[in-house]
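Tutorial handout. Part one gives the primary structure; part two gives the three-dimensional structure as tokens.
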Amino acid sequence: MVAAAAIAPPAPAIGAASAPVIEIEDVTRVYHLGDVDVHALRGVSLRVERGESIAIMGASGSGKSTLMNLIGCLDRPTSGTYRLAGKDVSRLSASELARVRGERIGFVFQNFNLLARTSAVENVELPLLYAGVGGHERRTRAIAALEQVGLGSRLDHTPNQLSGGQQQRVAIARALVSQPEIVLADEPTGNLDSRTSVEVMAMMQALVAKGITVVLVTHEPDIAQYAARVLTLKDGKVVSDTRHEPVRAVLEPEVAS
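Part two.
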């Protein structure tokens, strides 16, 4: 399990220092499919403080993936406002949104999204390559990120030489290499066994302990319990927003067979 102290702190804020890292006000998102308007989000408001952990839940079609895309600057709202660390990003151009994503947001996905024929360290380097970071610095930062998640001895392994849990660690290292303020995790334990899922959630809790905001999309209540807050969507609206003491992700010792 990765130690909390090993995780790098988030980058400096882009807006006011006291502003919430995520501030969404009365946001709607309407998709036009031919003659049909699909209302994916209907007046959603959300405020998330720096270093907070929140799980977004809801049935298929509830709007949770749309909300994740908006938070991740992968999409823009039809109406309403989204401020990221105090800066209004809801009307930025595509290139401006791409720059914000690269500098401020790390992504972790259910299917890992690793390049199959590329080594772990090269996979982790990719966000820095797109950001124009030089080769020596890219490699140095990618190695450090992999060491943070306990894969310093697997730098040259390709995904097919790694277990599912190790592949997800590579994905987490890739999310961390740009030192983001926010990590967005979309069903990050969906393809993992229960023990490895706890290991991944322990890493997420370590990020929160270092002041990184973690937003988790999940359909699993036992995974949502590791976040300090659970937001539930239905038909594009927030139907509940509850806070609780998160369950601490601790691995039980393996029992020899």
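Part three, for discussion. Confidence is low (pLDDT under 50) at residues 1-9, 11-16. The first strand starts at residue 22 and ends at 33.
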